[in-house]
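Many groups now describe folds with learned vocabularies. In that spirit, our science desk offers one protein's residues alongside their backbone shape tokens.
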Amino acid sequence: VALSHHEKWDGSGYPNGLCGEDIPLEGRIVAIADVFDALTSVRPYKQAWPVEQAVAFLREQSGRHFDPRLVELFIGCLPEILQIKERWRRAYTRRDHDIHSIGLTYVWTVW
């Protein structure tokens, strides 16, 4: 997963330039979850994107960066994904920590 989630569906990713279904399924799933979480979370260098804008980006990159079938599955699960994201945000806020994408990535991967 650590290596393959930077590969892109069209073969333009790294480190091995894998494309399509040559990218392990786990890496394709984590790529979507990781980008969505990064876009919709505040970072020291940027504000969080609105969910609608992040979904539009996933759709725009479907077939380029991301597996098109998995993008649609992810979007179809969006209500549950947003609940998980909020649950992790509350848990980490109570502990004065930043949100980390591992929660969203792990739960969606298990799903």
